[in-house]
Please model this.
Amino acid sequence: MQLFNQNRTKNININIIVSFLIKGINIICSFLMVPLTIAYVNPSQYGIWITISSIVAWIGLFDIGLGNGLRNKLAEAKTLGKYELAKTYISTSYILLGIIFSLILIIFFIINPHLNWATILNAPTELSNELSMLARISCSYFCIIFILKIISMVLIADQKNSIASAIEMLGQVINLGIIFILVKYTKGSIVNLGLGLLIAPIFTYLLASIYLYKKDYKKISPSFQWFNWFEGKELLKMGYKFFIPQISTVVVYQSLNILIAQFGTPLDVTSYNISYKLNSTFYIIMTIIVTPYWSAFTEAYVTKDINWMEKSTKRLKSYFYIMITFGFICLLLSNKIYDIWLNGEVKIPNVLSVLIFIYIVEQSWIQIHLFPLNGIGKLSIQYYSSIIETILNIPLAILLGHLMGVYGVILAPIIISLFRCIWTPIQLYKIINNKAYGIWNK
Model:
């Protein structure tokens, strides 16, 4: 057992170190892309692009939690050495998601001509045709990428998060090159921007899938012959536990861009996303640290390694306090960073930066408890909490938006998240200390 503990922790540490290097490149590319993109179009059109991407990203709900369900089921199958079962899970997931997103794409293409995107996005009417085209491009992208990203779930379930991050990084690097070419050789176009940013991820995930299923994961590579409806129902049963939380995530967080555009302007969406990108840097670092623990907690819980879970939880809290300090320093220096980063093109209000910092602190605190709970599979409280958050968020955001404008919209999810900040550490503590009864143990 001691050797098993050491191997698990060593694997996590290797993934964290490599992921730090990879995510560092990702963050640099992401920061460089903002001024380049704004230079290619303009701050308002950049905000429009962000908003339309957020709206179309809602189709990700229709995976019915299959991605995260597959992640947990694969980790369990791997721990127990059931590789044929793992192959069945993977094959079934590809086929089910392929059917679901093909139907979504057909339905969207039917209804899209009847949608007035200029009104939806509070954008100039002369952009209507371009926005309709951009919506079609974005929807096609998300339908394809949600299927291709199954390979990331396979890697994460196998505790090879660094490789999953490397695939994402390659797409970011290619994206940066594409934006640079667009700025240098073409006239600003929001449609060209969408095409340029969405092609690279599809390309990288497709190539990675082909390579990995022919090499490292050949014995569990997907096949039509391995589709199994019974195991599909098991995946859906597990995935359904993640489905409502996914809805909550989209409604509570993705709706922000839409509501900000309605209570402000597309330029306010740009300001929000730029500030979020800077302030969320330490959240990204926390994600790098926490992500390997999801599947590691699955393995530890299956093998009843309570001691390792307790030590790991304390370690995650230590990382959290370090990251808060880092984030606060970024907040204090944010105005100078914005001026250097954006060359004075966009001014970010201090109140906006403070609100987003508070929001990021909440999400990081939730994350270090929720990821282990997800790995363990104790999702009932999260399920009911998500329903409450989903019901309350938009009405509260609208109410506060009328009272306080854009700041009120951003304040709503901060208030909504407080409840989750309280119950997640309580539940994890109870489970680790064998004090979880009733709903706390479901």
